[in-house]
TrEMBL record, chain A:
It comes from Methylobacterium cerastii. InterPro entries: DUF898. It holds the Pfam family DUF898. The chain crosses the membrane at residues 16-37, 66-89, 95-117, 196-216, 248-274, 310-331, 343-365. It comes from the Bacteria. The keyword Oxidoreductase does not apply. The keyword Translocase does not apply. Keywords: Membrane, Transmembrane, Transmembrane helix. This is DUF898 domain-containing protein.
UniProtKB/TrEMBL annotation, chain B:
This is Beta-barrel assembly-enhancing protease. The gene is bepA_1. Residues 6-77 form the DUF7092 domain. It holds the Pfam family Peptidase_M48. It comes from Methylobacterium cerastii. Residues 354-373 are annotated as: Disordered.
Length: 422, 373
């Protein structure tokens, strides 16, 4: 019977709040430059508290490396922007397309940056003194991502889970732990179910009301239902008065209301999909340790473990606003009792506290509640089947690699933050 | 010194297999087990980050490390090794970092305030004419967009008078041959000079002028901006400013550089020196063309007075208007007031260049900061 190892994450998070407060405030006074060191501290914290089969992971990256990478990336971006600008100026025929061109170019650079950023994090990760690594090509990854996104757009999003699985297979398949290579047999079709839920919730009721509307109008589209508002600005629309009181008009209003409700409702499904995806990807991942059969990961992640952090976060923020309101109310009453303008005092104090404390509270609570709990949810629900296989992992001879990779992701603001399951 | 012992797991750094070892803490730390023998100096010993009670120990230059779960041992070790938690990467560096980044922020602000105007002045004449013309076309499109696409005014008779007036003002002045003066219907008394020798006159300026010389004085002032390449200089300066400030403020994609071109052209006024130089250019041009060079002063004062009703910044900008008017009158001399650049009949035709319905309300440009006259 193979021994099952577990991945543990200490839920008490002692010291994290202080780390986040100091990091946020220092980032503020240093025009954001400190964020590279803050991010490094956060990673050291999360890595070192993630204990795989008894041994914690170790993050050896430094803020200086991230900052230097960022400067290099900035120089690269300036070259890209100046090049695009010069192209638009020298080839006027291209000028109308320069926005699309820069979007496509920056998308490719962004995907490249995501892959190289992951490579940096892998190479700065040690476990039992064994360094992780990532090979493969950022350019290939960017090209694959571009093709997949094109396909996803062309299929109105239906290809999305297949894209996610394909890119996951590429990322995991090029991840190495010492001399051992990881593998993933993630399949997009295992995610089609939760993905189609989005369509069912977002478009199902809208489609039903639309069909009822068409049925009420003898299956012809009432093209004159919406008219431009007479005397109004361009874009102002009214319901055609000829339809007033009719079944068609009622259904048209219902259609608008349904569309307005269902699309936000579909957003509530995002954690559900993410949880399912994380579980499928974890279960698909394995490590081929020294030809003695793969070490597999087993995940028992539940969707509610992804909803809970967001719920607690929302309630914390509501509580923060309520406390600030209460303080403002008390101050206002006190000022009124002393003969001053109670309302002005309350508004000034409440507004000031909300503004100053709000940004700090949002940032710290997000790290403390959302990031930490999502991380903990993924880590603690994952087990290692045949953990003894881990002991056969051997260190590779490759070095820690250059730190210039991840700055690009930060400069483009993609994937620069902590990533669950790195 | 009493010794303390604990058992731990040794990892040699070559494989992930654990080896059971015994740690003995005396004057040095001894780690012994099957095939493992280490004798580490306590001063070199470093604890890598881990959640207590787990302790992870190593020294620089040794790929091996040992994991111990023993709170008592950890407490004793912490007393014996003062540098146990010292980090190589941030030791004492945080304050240096704060001071350094504040200095960098101040340096960027200084570069914006002092360096950029100089750099823009040096770069503007280097921009090739073809590039500047295309830049002008792009900027004009954006500026007109921001102003709500005011319609062009092209009454043939008025246009002919304007063309003759422009020809008289530019004769022998060496302005770019692609100079284009257009009139657009807008209820702001203003004129904009854009890169690539493009001058856009807004109809309200003609409506506010009480004589052809007042209007011609303003037009000559704009031609002065063209001659001195002020629009290109201002554009370089504004783009540089938005880029450098975006570095400081954290919008790090640099996208502001391109997006803000039109906005920058609208909102960034010229420096006072540039306005004075354009005024002097206007006086010289009007004198050469045989007009009333002092009329510009009257026009500036009238626009400033109208702005005062809507612009709370008036008190700040007014002294400069008064100073400009006085300088213009002194340069123009007493003889100026008798001259007329156009006949009354021509001026009447020019005033009808925007025919048709009265001005519809359009978004009003904020006076003062955006003032290009
Ligand atoms: Zn001017």
């Amino acid at each position: 019977m193979p021994r099952t190892g577990e991945i543990a994450f200490d839920p008490r998070l002692r010291g994290l709040t202080g780390l986040a407060v100091v990091g946020f405030l220092l980032s503020l006074v240093t025009f954001g430059i400190y964020r590279f060191w803050y991010m490094t501290d956060l990673r050291r914290f999360f890595w070192s508290r993630t204990v795989v089969d008894g041994s914690p992971a170790e993050y050896t990256g430094t803020g200086r490396e991230l900052f230097l990478g960022f400067l290099v990336a900035l120089a690269l971006l300036i070259v890209i922007y100046v090049g695009l600008f010069g192209l638009a100026i020298t080839v006027p025929a291209l000028a109308p397309y320069s926005a699309i061109l820069s979007f496509v170019l920056l998308f490719l650079v962004g995907q490249f940056a995501i892959y190289r950023g992951r490579r940096y994090r892998a190479m700065r990760t040690l476990w039992r003194g064994i360094r992780l690594g990532q090979d493969g090509s950022g350019l290939v990854y960017a090209a694959r991502a571009a093709l997949w996104w094109t396909l996803t757009l062309a299929t109105l999003g239906l290809a999305y889970p297949f894209m996610r699985a394909s890119l996951e297979r590429y990322r995991i398949g090029h991840t190495r732990v010492g001399t051992s290579r990881m593998a993933s047999d993630a399949r997009g079709r295992s995610l089609v179910g939760p993905w189609l839920l989005f369509y069912a919730v977002a478009f199902g009721p809208v489609l039903a009301v639309l069909l009822a509307l068409l049925a009420a109008n003898d299956f012809t589209l009432p093209t004159d239902l919406i008219l431009p508002k007479p005397g109004g600005k361009a874009g102002d629309l009214i319901l055609n008065p000829a339809y007033r009181g009719s079944r068609v008009a009622t259904l048209a209003i219902a259609l608008g209301v349904t569309a307005g409700c269902c699309l936000p409702l579909a957003l509530l499904l995002v954690p559900l999909y993410r949880a399912r995806e994380a579980k499928v990807f974890m279960n698909a991942a394995s490590l081929n340790a020294a030809s003695l059969g793969p070490v597999r990961l087993v995940s028992t992640l539940r969707a509610r473990q992804f909803y809970w952090p967001y719920l607690v976060y929302a309630l914390s923020l509501l509580g923060f606003v309520a406390v600030v309101g209460l303080i403002a109310l008390l101050a206002g009453l006190a000022a009124r009792a002393a003969g001053g303008n109670g309302f002005a005092w309350a508004a000034a104090l409440g507004g000031g506290l909300l503004y100053l404390g709000g940004a700090l509270a949002f940032a710290v609570l997000h790290v403390r509640i959302v990031q930490a709990r999502l991380w903990a949810a993924v880590a603690t629900t994952t087990d290692i089947a045949d953990a003894d296989g881990l002991n056969r992992i051997l260190a590779a001879t490759h070095g820690p690699g250059s730190g210039l990779n991840e700055g690009l992701a930060d400069a483009l603001d993609v994937g620069g933050a902590l990533q669950i399951g790195f | 010194m009493p010794s303390s012992t604990a058992s731990g797991r040794w990892f040699d750094g070559r494989s992930a297999a654990p080896h059971d070892v015994t740690l003995r803490l005396g004057d040095r730390l001894e780690i012994t087990g099957p095939g493992v023998h280490r004798d580490w100096n306590l001063d070199d010993l470093r604890a890598r980050e881990a959640q207590a009670p787990l302790l992870r120990l190593g020294i620089a230059g040794d790929p091996g490390q040992v994991e111990v779960v023993d709170a008592t041992f950890a407490a004793i070790l912490a007393i014996r090794c003062p540098d146990l938690r010292k980090r190589a990467d941030t030791a004492g560096g945080t304050w240096r970092l704060v001071v350094g980044s504040l200095a960098a922020g101040v340096a960027i602000l200084l570069a914006v305030a002092l360096g950029l105007p100089v750099a823009a002045g040096l770069l503007a004449p280097l921009v090739p004419d073809g590039v500047e013309a295309r830049l002008g076309a792009a900027v004009e499109g954006q500026v007109l967009d921001l102003m709500g696409d005011p319609p062009a005014c092209a009454d043939p008779a008025g246009r002919a008078v304007l063309d003759r007036l422009v020809a008289r003002l530019v004769s022998g002045r060496g302005l770019p041959s692609d100079l284009a003066v257009t009139v657009r219907r807008h209820n702001t008394a203003n004129a904009l000079t854009l890169p690539g020798a493009r001058v856009v006159v807004l109809s309200e300026l003609i409506a506010k002028a009480r004589s052809a010389d007042e209007f011609a004085g303003v037009l000559a002032h704009e031609l002065g901006h063209v001659a001195l390449r002020d629009p290109t200089r201002a554009l370089i300066q504004a783009s540089g400013t938005s880029f450098l400030l975006s570095l400081v403020l954290g919008d790090l994609t640099g996208s502001t550089v391109i997006v803000a071109l039109g906005q920058a052209a609208l909102s960034a006024g010229y420096s006072r020196d540039a306005e004075r130089a354009a005024d002097a250019y206007s006086v010289a041009t009007m004198q050469a063309a045989g007009g009333d060079a002092a009329a510009l002063a009257t026009m500036l004062e009238r626009i400033a007075k109208d702005d005062a009703e809507t612009d709370p910044d008036f008190l700040r900008t007014h002294p400069f208007t008064r100073e400009r008017a006085a300088t213009i009158r002194a340069q123009a001399g007493a003889a100026a007031s008798g001259r007329r650049i156009l006949s009354e009949a021509e001026w009447a035709q020019l005033r009808r260049i925007c025919p048709g319905a009265p001005d519809k309300p359009a978004p009003k440009l904020r006076p003062g900061r955006g003032r290009r006259v």
